[in-house]
Amino acid sequence: MEIVEKTEREVLVLAVKGEIDLHVSPALRAVLKAKAQAKTPRLLLNFAEVAYIDSSGLATLIEYYQSARAYQGRFGLCNLGLSVRSSIELVRLTEVFSIFSNEAEALKALATS
């Protein structure tokens, strides 16, 4: 897994590349935990290059979401592939997470809130 970080319109964007499974989710968890500790106000995960996410990866996203809510942080996901979207829909996280079709749409929504 690789993560490329950039800031656009006051939103921290993490472009994630690779599969998110039991072996790499601890690394993602460490990155997201650091962002939560820094109280990052707006965070977007761009999953354009993520082909797969398992339950440990979903748990990592939930942990970050809960941490961000504690300080009113905004969190979104964009560019979900079919497999990743299916995993998120299966556990009904589409009702919890802000999910966007693309990065531009996500930036517009997150930057104005």
How would you characterize this protein structure?
The structure is a single chain. The chain is an alpha/beta fold and 113 residues long. The chain has one domain (2-111): 2-Layer Sandwich (Transcription Regulator spoIIAA), CATH 3.30.750. Helix content is 42%, strand content 27%. The chain is built from 4 helices and 5 strands, in the order ββαβαβαβα. The chain has a 5-stranded mixed β-sheet, sandwiched between helices. β3 (42-49), α2 (55-70) and β4 (74-78) form a beta-alpha-beta unit. α1 (25-37) packs parallel to α2. The longest helix has 16 residues, at 55-70. The protein is globular. The termini are far apart. The model has no long low-confidence stretch (mean pLDDT 97).
CATH superfamily: STAS domain
Strand order of the largest sheet: 1-2-3-4-5
Query: DSSP helix count?
Result: 4
For this structure, the CATH topology is Transcription Regulator spoIIAA
Helix-strand topology string:
EEHEHEHEH
Low-confidence stretches: none
Architecture (CATH level 2) name = 2-Layer Sandwich
Structural class: alpha/beta
Radius of gyration from the alpha-carbon trace, in angstroms = 13 Å
The overall average pLDDT, rounded, is 97
Q: Strand-residue fraction?
A: 25-35%
| Helix residue percentage | 40-55%
How many distinct folded domains? 1
Ends distance: 30 Å
Shape: globular
Q: What is the CATH domain class? A: Alpha Beta
Report the biggest beta sheet as strand number plus sense, adding barrel if it closes: 5 strands, mixed
